[in-house]
Amino acid sequence: MSQEEELVFEESQQGIKIVIWGPTLAGKTTALSLFHAIKKKEDPESVYNFLKLEDKATERTIGFDQATFGLGGGPGKGFKYHLFTTPGQDRFKSMRKIVINGLHGLIVVIDSEKARWEENRDSLKELFEVSGDKIYSGDIKIAIMLNKMDLPVESRISAADVGRLMIEAGVSDKLRDTFASTFEVSCLDALSALRDAWNKGEWNPKQRPQAVQRIIQPIQMVIRDILISELQKR
Ligand SMILES: Nc1nc2c(ncn2[C@@H]2O[C@H](COP(=O)(O)OP(=O)(O)OP(=O)(O)O)[C@@H](O)[C@H]2O)c(=O)[nH]1
Ligand SMILES: [Mg+2]
Questions:
Q1: From atom 27 of ligand 1, which residue's Cα is the shortest distance away?
Q2: pLDDT tens for residues 16-65?
Q3: CA-nearest residue, atom 32 of ligand 1
Q4: Are 109 and 147 in contact (CB under 8 A)?
Q5: Whose CA is nearest to atom 8 of ligand 1?
Q6: Sign (positive/negative) of CA torsion 205, 35, 209, 106?
Q7: Which pTM value belongs to this model?
Q8: Residue 72 clears pLDDT 50, i.e. is over it
Q9: Type and span of the H or E element at 82
Q10: Ligand 1 environment, Cβ below 6 A
């Protein structure tokens, strides 16, 4: 086992594993960084670690990013969940296969920029290719983040177009229902809302700015769905 494989393996042994999947430059690392920053602000005890493996010059992920959080009880106690991002560049297909092993949940990031339609389609195709039967079993909890909704309306797609993207990627009817949860988000807007609020010294976890809440919501939904399903198995 390589060092990376060992880390992916060890980290996913306990708790639940959620993978953030999508084409390169879609915003996966940005979304995870945001989620991490918010957790660190609101509940630092629940944050265990955050590792980013990126090429400093291009800021693209060259291995994977990985963050671990607790559901409560402080370090060493309670349930952990692990969030991984995949590296989206074509050349990292074998790494994506490793990262996706043993997952419980998926956040599929789609780049809403119209010009990125083919990259989105190919990324979805590959997801079904590498996750195989598991994704069809319904055992994996999924949410879609349609990112970059800050782009001008004429140069981006909307949630209504996601179905067409799925059809082009060969996603079956049955599975398209699983993909019903599409969240329109903008990591860029969330970042600026976060900075504004922090600069003013205003932060209330119960009243997060809407752009920030939109990033948190799909991740929390997937965590909740996994926990419910794990509890039902017991
Ligand atoms: N306009 C806009 N740009 C965004 C948004 N989210 C991320 N970006 C930008 O998109 C670029 C890529 O973001 P990353 O988060 O590094 O993308 P990634 O999906 O991790 O890419 P890989 O690591 O190569 O797979 C960066 O320049 C971000 O600032 C968004 O909501 N709107
Ligand atoms: Mg990345």
A1: 25
A2: 999 999 999 999 999 999 999 999 999 999 999 899 888 888 888 888 89
A3: 148
A4: yes
A5: 27
A6: negative
A7: 0.92
A8: yes
A9: strand 80-85
A10: 22, 24-30, 59-61, 85, 87-89, 147-148, 150-151, 186-188
